[in-house]
Design goal:
The structure is a homodimer of 452-residue chains. The first copy, chain A, is of the alpha+beta class and 452 residues long. Among the domains of chain A are: 192 residues, BirA Bifunctional Protein, domain 2, CATH 3.30.930.10; 87 residues, 3-Layer(aba) Sandwich (Rossmann fold). Chain A has 18 helices and 16 strands. In chain A, the strands form three sheets. In chain A, strands 1-5-6-11-10-9-7-8 form an eight-stranded mixed beta sheet. Chain A has a five-stranded mixed beta sheet with strand order 13-12-14-15-16. In chain A, α1 crosses α14, α6 packs across α13 and α7 packs antiparallel against α13. The longest helix of chain A is centred in the N-terminal third of the chain and has 20 residues. Chain A is globular. The model of chain A has no long low-confidence stretch (mean pLDDT 94).
Chain lengths: 452, 452
């Protein structure tokens, strides 16, 4: 029998949980400082809500849940040759697992619109599931930490998201670069060569420039159906150089005839100008090759990379003008980003950036010398806890060595030994596990140690 | 198209999340004060891990996940009349959703035993899923908050769990009664009538005594196959009276010949005697009719009821001597309880016990009067956040009334108005939203308001 975890999923041990919670709590605290409110949506959604929102590949990767009871009821099996898994999947499975937090959020906004305060600022930290092939750094169950503002077109929201990114990673001590682009500019590239239908092909190709280089991107563009004349027009865009201001000014000339492109540039410029005055600690970079996969983005798009560790994007997002439209609510523009907790974890681990003091373990262990002594211990432990000092009594009368090893393995800084003499004298023998020093004291003196 | 949530699942709005987090954080803080460490297990497990652990009913209620890709590969469809949903279910679905936290925890302990520090004290707060018929107070997705000690036989663990129950509900200000029983005593009842195989029938019947009354329980016992002689033997057990000590003493006489029963009584007595000295604030009651459904319990069993609100059990658990055995690890006794966050929520809501101060919303909203003013606002907001004061700038230049309504609806206590004059003078007009008072001040004075 196979009793291991499902491939691509993970057990989290206490020391991993403590580090993960450090990341979640850091992110959450910044979200709340900016006035974002928590929400949660169900893990299980109707497939009608999920399907068709993530492209064909996404549909395939959604985990589908078998209907309860006789799921074959109503399925015609009389002609076996007519049956294939694609044709019966949507009959035997009508529910699926959440694939991301953005689409359920759009559904949430539509369903609860009468109870929400717009512009609605929400954050959501929950797992998502993808029936993907597991590989290093890619899991079938992983957490997303999303923050979105919906119901406002203002670019102040884009600016606030940059501030949030900056503050989160400053708090985590991770040096990062925020990459910005704008979907309108990408659209304009396909427009100026007169091939708007090629937008996706073009963005998919130029997105790879960092990985495969300029020459290969040009080859791919030609393969995908662009001609040499198109390449000549796109070439200067791929060769933008200098700082953000330089790049924007070069692009303004190149796209001077294209309204969509100029609108995109104007949006980016507003964001850059405002952020310049805020003295963020992160680099912010205009990157024309940044595309972001999902089709629902319509304005600014964001991506974050760690400067000192190579792991791909650790945060990403963008502006979507009509995500709630598919659920029947138009004119509800939103913008949001998603922090990838697992990759951030890997960065912090690799760069040794987890603070030592987050291991908030038991402060004191009472050694168990037998029934009478341990009764005294649990009474003392109760007093310590009332003073907010975490403490436990070893449950068994085991060998002292075994109990001390338990304290050591759990990094417990103090151990209390209570024998007959201590009971009689109302004292506690306290051992500092780092210095090895032993001191006899009463319970009030013990409490004081922790209040220093 | 159906875009509502799946029946039996729920969206959680910010004001609900804040209350839920208050419950989770309260429970978590008590767990940590007792030295329990957090773990998490995957939502998705192999069905081989889950099936057969929860009885037939449980197996039916486990959500099964359709295999990825061509799930019909290897399924013989040539003889349609041979096919039924039961026979193909385990071929097309090999994974399922977590049904509770205890069985995955047992699997976790077995798989990770070399990295754990025994006796291992863990807590786990995660959702579970059951394909149940939704009804009031019963959901298809709900959170469990579990705390277990595994790898120790000591009754100090049972005592600690009673303390945890007491401290959690004291923190939540909810008056409760802890009901205790012992599976060994229940076993002995079936033994003294010479029908050990009837243990489940007997416990299922007497568990209903509070709901349906003594007479009907007797009828049910007779229907289930007991005879009048058996009833005569069981009758005094069902009629135990007085306080815990009285009941135990009566039971000692009744079960004087039965070793299992006496062992169970001894265990209960030890727990009661120790707890008597701890001055808990909760009632603790020996309840011989308490059975707990799951078959894996072998010693003490616990259940908690709210004194002032009728909603069934809000916490429950017990001792299991061999839960890890099915996963290949014997001699690993454990004991644990599970807090039902949803029912606790309903209790606190019904009794109006949620503290008012948990709504930790934005402290100050900057009103947006236009581009130049809002740039100043976001610079100020940044300073406030650096001083740990949550603040936001209304993203759009909307009508003042609309912006004030936003602040009101979000319960934001202060609003800042910055017009041209304020910019020139480096001042901020701060309005107290409760008193209505307006005061002109500089940023340092504003920070001081919140530090008072």
């Amino acid at each position: 029998m196979n009793y291991s975890v499902v491939k691509g999923t993970r057990d989290f041990l206490p020391n991993q949980m403590i580090k993960r919670n450090y990341i979640f709590n850091s992110i959450k605290s910044i979200f709340e400082l900016h006035g974002f409110c928590p929400i949660e949506t169900p893990s299980i959604e109707n497939l009608s809500t999920l399907m068709g929102k993530y492209g064909e590949e996404g549909d395939r990767l959604i985990y589908k849940i078998l209907n309860s009871g006789d799921f074959l009821k109503g399925v015609d099996l009389s002609n076996p040759s007519d049956i294939n898994y694609k044709s019966i999947a949507n009959k035997i499975a009508e529910k699926g697992l959440r694939y991301d937090l953005t689409v359920p959020f759009a559904r949430f906004v539509v369903n609860n619109r009468n109870e929400l305060n717009f512009p609605f600022k929400r954050y959501q930290i929950q797992p998502v599931w993808r029936a993907d092939r597991p590989q290093k750094g890619r899991y079938r169950e992983f957490y997303q930490c999303d923050v979105d503002i919906i119901g406002s077109n203002s670019l102040l929201n884009e600016i606030e998201l940059c501030e949030i990114i900056d503050e989160v990673f400053a708090k985590l001590n991770l040096n990062i670069t925020i990459k910005l682009n704008n979907r309108k500019i990408l659209s304009s590239i396909s427009e100026i060569i007169g091939k708007p239908e090629m937008l996706t092909d073009i963005t998919v190709a130029i997105d790879k420039i960092e990985k495969i280089g300029y020459e290969k991107v040009i080859c791919e563009l030609l393969e995908r159906g662009l001609d040499q004349e198109d390449i000549n027009k796109i070439d200067p865009i791929l060769k933008l150089s200098g700082n953000n201001k330089d790049k924007i000014s070069q692009l303004k000339t190149i796209l001077s005839e294209n309204e969509t492109g100029l609108k995109g540039i104007e949006e980016l410029e507003t964001v850059f100008n405002s952020i310049d005055k805020l003295n963020l600690s992160s680099n912010i970079e205009f990157d024309i090759t940044l595309a972001r996969g999902l089709n629902y983005y319509t304005g600014c798009i964001f991506e974050v990379k760690a400067n000192d560790f190579s792991i791909g994007s650790i945060t990403g997002g963008g502006r979507y003008d009509n995500l709630t439209g598919v659920f029947g609510l138009d004119n509800m523009s939103g913008v949001g980003i998603s922090f990838g907790a697992d990759r951030i974890y890997d960065c912090l681990e690799a760069l040794d950036l987890f603070p030592k003091e987050i291991n908030n373990t038991t402060k004191l262990l009472f050694i168990n010398f037998g029934e009478r002594e341990s009764q005294k211990c649990i009474e003392y432990a109760r007093i310590l806890r009332k003073n907010n000092i975490s403490s436990e009594t070893y449950p068994d009368k085991a060998k002292l060595q075994k109990q001390m090893k338990y304290a050591n393995d759990k990094n417990i800084p103090f151990v209390a030994l209570i024998g007959e003499r201590e009971i009689e004298e109302n004292k506690i023998m306290v051992k500092n596990m780092i210095s090895g020093e032993q001191t006899l004291m009463d319970i009030n003196q013990l409490i004081e140690i922790f209040n220093l």
